[in-house]
Design brief:
Blueprint (H helix, E strand, L loop, with lengths): L1 H11 L18 H7 L22 H25 L3 H26 L3 H28 L3 H9 L2
Helix pairs in contact: 3-4, 4-5
Length: 158
């Protein structure tokens, strides 16, 4: 405990009028920024690329991540609810959330593994087409057949 207090006192106090050791502004800088300024000295030391600071204030990515987590948690609740209370509302809710969950998951695969401008555009077009066909097929199955909840129950009864 005494060592921690001593380190904090040395870091927080200005030793002989100089800058504090632990509260030096270099320690609070982003590593990518440090690498960019020291690139001339160590060209192979930096391999991290960050997004430009102009996009740093955008909350779209954060909101999208939060929405993905909300849909995942919603599915955790919908699956037992679909077993306990089957019906048309539950069937269409499952169709929408399963399609959205699958669309966002495959979108991350496209983002991570498809490279090149034309390839990305084709993959995204195919993804939107697949998601639309999946949702339409699930809605058709819900309307013209037994529905998702009863279909799963029938599979379990085999």
């Amino acid at each position: 405990m005494a060592v921690v207090l001593r380190v904090l006192r040395v870091g927080l106090c200005r030793p002989r009028g100089g800058n504090p050791v632990l509260l030096n502004s270099i320690l609070f800088s982003r590593p990518a920024v440090l690498c960019a300024t020291a690139e001339e000295r160590r060209p192979l030391a930096c391999g991290i690329h960050t997004s430009p600071r102009s996009l740093a204030g955008s909350k779209a990515a954060s909101l999208h991540w939060t929405a993905e987590r909300a849909v995942s948690v919603l599915l955790l609740g919908l699956l037992p609810a679909a077993y306990l209370y089957p019906g048309p509302a539950m069937d269409y809710s499952l169709a929408a959330t399963l399609t959205l969950h699958g669309h966002w998951g495959l979108g991350q695969v496209v983002t991570d593994y498809v490279h090149g401008e034309t390839s990305v555009k084709l993959a995204n077009t195919g993804l939107y087409l697949l998601s639309a066909v999946t949702f339409a097929g699930l809605c058709y199955f819900n309307y013209h057949d037994v529905g998702i909840c009863r279909a799963v129950a029938m599979l379990w009864s085999l």
